[in-house]
Amino acid sequence: VGCDLYETSDQSRGLTIYNNTFVGCGVGSNGFKNLEIFNNLFYKPAGNRAISTSRPGSGEGFIPSILYSDYNIFYPEASFGLDLNLSDLKYNSLQEWRTVTSSFEGGFETSSTTIPPDMNSLTDDPMVVSESSLDYRVSMSSIAHVNQQKGRDKEGIGCYPTGEEVIGLIPNEE
Predict the structure, then answer these.
(1) I need a surface site. Which of 66, 118, 132, 136 has the fewest CB within 10 A?
(2) From CA 174, how far away is CA 165, in angstroms rounded?
C-alpha cells in the first residue's frame, strides 16, 4: 500500500502520521503543510525512499512542509526527498537527512524550529516477528521496545506498539 497524499484546491495543514508500520512503501506528500511524522516503522520502503514531499502540478503554489519528524525506525537505511519536482533536495541516508537544520532550506520549509529531523530515529533491524508470514509486529527484544527507544511520549513505534495488538484478519484457529 502506497501512502501518497495529494492536495486539492486549498492547502491542507496539520496532518499527523503516527504509529504506522509501512512495509514496502514510504510516505509521499504533495502540497501538505506542517506534516508531523513520528513513531512509525518504515520496513524496506520501495526504492528505499521513506519520506518525500513535492509541490502539486507544475511546482507553483502550495509549498509543502514537514513540521516534525522523529522517533521513527527506517530499516534498512532509507533515503528522503524534499520538494522533489522543483528544488529536488535529496538525502541518501538518515545521517544526511539530519543535516536539514534551517527553517527554509532551498526556499523550502522543513521545520518551524532549527531542530533537525529524526534525531531520535534509528536504522537498526526492528526484528519483526515473521516477514515470511507477513507478521510485522516487532519482537519484545526489538529496539522499538528497549533502550528507551519507545517513541514520542513513550508510546511505542509502529502500529503494534505493545506487540499484543491484532490488526487485520484474525486467523481461524481450530
Answers:
(1) 132
(2) 20
Grid cell of 117 as nine digits: 529531523
Cis check: omega of the bond before 76, within 30 degrees of 0: yes
Instruction: Determine if the pTM surpasses 0.70.
Output: yes
Mean pLDDT by runs of 10 across the 174 residues of the chain is: 56 84 88 85 90 71 79 92 76 90 49 71 92 88 70 75 67 65
| Grid cell in block for residue 99 | 543535516
3-state secondary structure of 40: coil
Confirm if 110 and 66 have CB atoms less than 8 A apart. Answer: yes
Neighbours of 4 (CB within 10 A): 12
Number of other CB atoms surrounding residue 98 within 10 Å: 15
